[in-house]
Every structure is written in structure tokens, then in C-alpha cells.
Amino acid sequence: MSDQAPKNPVAPINGNLRADKVRAGDLRGIDELDTPPMRLQFGPSHPATHGTVKITLDLEGEKVVWSDVEVGYLHRGFEKECETGYYYQNIPYTDRLNYSSPILNNIGYCMAVEKLFGIVTPPRCDYLRVIAGEISRLADHMLCIGASAMELAAFTPMLYLIEGRELMLDLTDALCGARVTTNFIRIGGVSADMPENFRDFAMERIDRAVKLVDDAHKLLTDNPVFRRRMEGTGYLSPKDLVAWGVTGPMLRAGGVPYDIRRVHPYLAYGDLDFEVPVGEHSDNFDRYLVRMAEVKQCRSMILQCFDKLPGGPVDAHDPRVRWPAKGRVFNRMEELIDQFKLVTEGGVAPVGEVYHAVEAANGELGFYMVSDGTGKPWKCRCRAPSFSNMSPLSKMITGGQLADVVPTFGMINMIGGECDR
Amino acid sequence: MTADNLPETPAPPKPELSPLLQKVVGRLGDLVQEHKSASGDDRIHVARENILDAARILRDDPELAFDLLLDITAIDYLGQPDDFATNLEVWDENRATMRRQPQRRHELVLPPRGPDPRFAVVYHLTSTTHSHVLRVKCRVPEDDPVIPSVASLWPGANWLERETFDMYGIRFEGHPDLRRIYLYEEFVGHPLRKDYAKHGEQPIQEYVGPGAKEPRRPH
Q1: Contact across the interface for B39 and A118, Cβ inside 8 Å
Q2: Cβ atoms of A388 and A363 closer than 8 Å
Q3: How far is Cα A133 from Cα A136, in angstroms, rounded to an integer?
Q4: Nearest C-alpha of chain B: how many angstroms from A91?
Q5: DSSP state for residue A97 in the 8-state scheme
Q6: What is the ipTM of this complex?
């Protein structure tokens, strides 16, 4: 580096007098060895991040003195697309929001539409949704911990946890025939009841997956290298977490017990007995521990759901949103009309607007639907947890070491599909 | 049946305010232009000049304590009458849902726009202590799409307001760093506005920002 002021205009560095003087060309009183801060482009596709995001860093040695986070590399117009489809046609798009836990997105969207239409789902459907959603949450947490550990050069836990995630994807496969792009939840119900013997099949696989998580826990939690990189890094005070709109495991790691499943119980969560794990230090290590504890809670919730699973239908079969069975369409008048109306004008929603939020793997996933009284939403807004959780990243990494960027980003668990929509 | 010979129906009794709206309306007083509870959601309308005052009270009052800003977005009511009304007939009690066909929306003769401006900025607030949710709406006119920024109260509003600016072109006054967040700076138009065609394509514009004339890799 030369002793000249940098050619590229460098963004302001708060409170860094030396860098400001160098930029202004005023080199008096500055040691000749002093260099202007180095501009580092971290991303958009970087091997140490799992997600497409560009972080611009100004470094003095290893210290981050200024940073800027740019998202939007995966923006594909989710909301515009939803405005041009019928309500039931938009469910597959929601699979692509948070693609590591797609069923939770399906649930969020469908529950918002049900609230708009005023549909009440049968109890068996609620329990099945909880089972499917918690399986999805298990898969998401395993992927998050595994990928973050791998970025900190701990490769073996990643292999264990990816194996556990594969077991969870097998269960999604058994439920709906797809591993990632599930499209399992429908408005007013689920696409199909669970297969026979699903309980034994699921519990055996979940127990294996939890054992793999335990193995990873033995490798990571007391590992001095892992702890030194996680403890105390990425700190944000609980007050700041709330002010920045952070939700989910990140907020709970700061000691704020805000969990939608507890404060606004939906589906069957009001009947289940579960704990909301909270941390106390609000650093990356506590975020990791909260996710580890949630894995245990997920297993317990799924077991309780299997025990309490009521009988009955799994679908409300509301003709405004659900296609009738083909055999009935071909033989009966009413069902033929229903199908014709659904194809030509979609289910007609009442005029109004609703907001409904569910607890997704990364935090509060809300859908805000505005209906103008036709079959297509006038507006379909997705409140994505990753987006709000990413916004304080710049604040969290500025002032720290370059190496702390990686675990902080990993524990935010930014999913491009959801953050950029 | 036309509007003239409709029988005089007595005005429906004023619905009871929900417990949250009682507190909010009692505390904000005249700042609330309109309030409504529907489908379990509570919402208030606030004039855009008053949004900062109202937001400060909502955040700081211990009874309300809306400390967590969930979401900021906007709605574009282009060409639609207020509250999406079509005509009096469809508001008949027995026919709550409308008979409007989506394909034929352009054929319908809609009543003219009411006094409400084209855009509405929508805030969703919640409280980590009382865990209630409130929606605040502010109408913003088309010819002057400006609204005060709430980023000074909730720093999380920073990115949400940038996104709303990017998608709807609504400018937030007092925002620390208002630039596009998803799309690139040279993009023309605001894609979530209703007059931006879904299939509207535009060539990628040349980069004109800082350092554009320098070689791509100076080192």
C-alpha cells in the first residue's frame, strides 16, 4: 500500500481520526508505516458463508473498523408473483422462502389465508401440522449448527448433522413425497394424512437424529477452539436486539423469552407442554446452545403430538379454496361447479386485511394479506425473520475481529430465499 | 335497485372497542384518525405528520410498550376505491363477498377514488412484555410520497424503510441512509407499484456509482 490517500473513495469511518486524516490527504503527524484501512469484499459468494450476501469491510490489521452489508442477490419478486396468482397457487412459492424448513413457511402462509377466509381447521390437521413443522425445525437447526461448525473448520460435526438432516428429510418424503419443495400444507388442511406406521418410522429416525446431535454436542460444546470463537463474539444487548426487530433463537439467546408458540399459541401448541430455552449472554455461543436445546424440545413436542393425535378428517374441505376429489367432480353437479369456479376465478376472499405470524426456525414469520374481494391477493407481504435478523449484522461485527464475522453470520442463519424474497 | 330507493337502514350500533384499542385510543387521543378491529387484528390510522409523535407514545408508554417493530411495508391502492368498495349492491348484508371477477377487473366501472391518497404505509408493532400486536396505517399521496422515518425510534426500521423505498418509491424523511436494498441503484421504477407490469423487463443499466470510471481491479 502506498502512503497516498486511497484512490477509491472510502466510506466514512466513525470516530477513526487517523483514517479520516489519511483520506483527507493530511499526513502530518502520522507515522510513515501507517496505512489506510484495507477494503475487503467479503462475498457475495464466499466459502466461509452459507448464503449469498456481500459484506464490505474496512480492516485495520484484523480489526473491522467499518462495514456495510448488502443483501438482495436472491431477490426474485416473491410478493409481485403472489399478487398475480390465486391464493392456492402461491403455496409452492412459499417453499422457496426458507428452503431449509419449507413446511414452516407453508404453515405461515396457509394460516394467514385461513384467517382471511375465516376457515377453521380440524384438530387432527392442527396436530399433523405441528408434527410436520417441528420435523422441519429440527432439520433447519441441524443445518444451521452443522454449517456454522464447518465454517469454523469443525468438519466432523457437520457430517453428523447433515446425516441427521437427511433423516428428517426422509420423514418429509414419507409425508408428502418431496424432500425440500414440500407443498404439504394446504389452505384449510394438509395434502394427505400421514402414512400408516408413521409414528414408529418417525420416532426411530428422530431418535437417531437426536443421538447424532448429541454426538455433535460432545464434539463442539466443550471444544476449546469452538468456544473461543463463539463465546463473547457477535454480542448485541437484549435492548438492542428488541429495538432492531430481532426474533427467534437470536432474541431468546439474549434472555428475552419471546416465542410466538408461547405468547400467541396457534395450532396445537396451546395443548403441548414445552419449554422456551433462553440464554443469558446474547453471544454466538448462547445462540448455539439455544438451538441445541430447541432440538430436544422439538423431539418432545412431536412425541406429545403423536400421543394426543385425534382422529377425524385432516382437511376442512372448504370449497372456496380446496379442489374437490376428481371422482366427485366427474359425477356430481356441485363439485363440478366448485372446480370450475376455482379454475376460472380462484377462491373469492372477503375484503379485508389480516396479519398472522408463526414461529419459524429463525424467528417470527408473518404474512400480511390484503384482499380486494377477488381470487387473487391485492398484496401478500412476507415478514421474513432473516431480513430483520440480518439488519444489525453491521453493528455486531464492527469493532470486532475479522474472524468473528464468520460465526456471527453463521448464527444469524441468514437464508437468502427468505431474506431477499 | 338503485341507491336512491334503498330502504333507510338504521346505523349499526357502534362496536365495542377491543381492550387494546381502548388503551391505544385513550392514550393517543386525537392522533388517531380512525380505528378498526377485524379478524382479531387491531389497527389505527394516523396522519403522516403525526406518525413520529404517535410512534414515540406507542413505544414509550408503559401500558403499551410497543418495543418491537415487526414490519414496515406499503400498499398501493392504484385505481381502487376506498376500502375496495364496488357499489352499494354488494354491501348487502346477505352477500358479504363480492362478485367481482379478477379477469374482468378492467371491465368493471369502479366508483371513483375517495378522498384517501394512493399509498398507505403500514407498520406492525408488538410488545415483548404485553405481547399485543397493533397495525398502524398512514396514507401517503402519490404526488408527494414522503413520510417521516421512524428509524430514530426503532433502528430496525432502517432496512425495512429502505425496502419500502425500493419497492414503492416512498421516501422516508430523516432516514440515515436511504438507498435501494434489493435492486441496484440504476434500476428504473419501483416494482411493487401496481402500474409496474409484472413482465416489464428492462436492460441492466450501466453502473454509474463511485469508482465507475476506474479500472475494475486497480490493484
Answers
A1: yes
A2: yes
A3: 5
A4: 19
A5: T
A6: 0.82
Does pLDDT of B103 surpass 50? no
Q: Do A368 and B122 touch (CB under 8 A)?
A: yes
Superfamily assignment of B19-173 in CATH?
NADH:ubiquinone oxidoreductase Nqo5 subunit (3.30.460.80)
Sequence-distant (6+) residues with CB within 8 A of A100 are: A139, A140, A143, A144, A361, A415
For the record, the C-alpha cell of A98 comes out as 426458507
- Please report the number of interchain residue pairs, chain A to chain B, with beta-carbon separation below 8 angstroms: 140
Closest-CA distance, A349 to chain B, in angstroms, reads 7
Tell whether A115 lies on the interface with B, counting CB pairs under 8 A.
yes
Domain residue limits, chain B: 19-173
Beta-carbon separation of B73 and A381 below 8 A = yes
Chosen for mutation from A355, A367, A382, A395 (greatest number of chain B CBs closer than 10 Å) is A355
- CB of B81 closer than 8 Å to CB of B113: yes
Q: Which helix (H) or strand (E) holds A14?
A: none
Q: Is A29 exposed, middle or buried (0-12, 13-18, 19+ CB in 10 A)?
A: exposed
A378 inside 8 A of chain B by CB: yes
Q: What DSSP state is assigned to residue A114? A: H
Evaluate if pTM is beyond 0.95: no
Nearest to B138 by CA among B162, B167, B172: B172
Give the domains, in start order, of chain A with CATH numbers. Answer: 17-70 (no CATH), 78-420 (1.10.645.10)
Q: Where are the beta strands (DSSP E) in A206-269?
A: none
Residue B91 touches chain A, beta carbons under 8 Å: no
Q: Report DSSP letters for A327-382, one per residue.
A: HHHHH-HHHHHHHHHHHHH-PPPPSEEEEEEEEETTEEEEEEEEE-SSSSEEEEEE
Of the pLDDT bands very low, low, confident and very high (cuts 50, 70, 90), residue A85 is confident
Question: B98 vs A351: CB contact, 8 Å cut-off?
Answer: yes
Find which of B83, B126, B132 to mutate to test the A interface (most A CBs within 10 Å of its CB).
B126
* Chain A contact for B127 (CB, 8 A cutoff): no
Furthest C-alpha separation in chain B: 81
Rounded-to-integer distance, Cα A77 and Cα A82, Å: 9
Which residue type sits at A237? S
Burial class of A360 by CB neighbour count within 10 A (0 to 12, 13 to 18, 19+): buried
Strand (E) or helix (H) holding B147: strand B146-148
Nearest to B72 by CA among B167, B133, B157, B191: B157
In A, minimum Cα distance to B216 occurs at A8
pLDDT computed for residue A50 by the predictor: 75
Instruction: Pull the grid cell for residue A118.
Output: 375465516
Phi, psi of A315 (to 5 degrees): -145, 140
SS3 assignment, position B35: strand
pLDDT at B148: 92
3-class DSSP state of A63: strand
> Could you tell me whether strands B146-148 and B171-173 are parallel, antiparallel, or unpaired per DSSP bridges?
parallel
Residues A386-405 have a mean pLDDT of 89
Closest residue to A245, CB basis, from B70, B76, B105: B70
CB-neighbour burial class of residue A135 (10 A; exposed 0-12, middle 13-18, buried 19+): buried
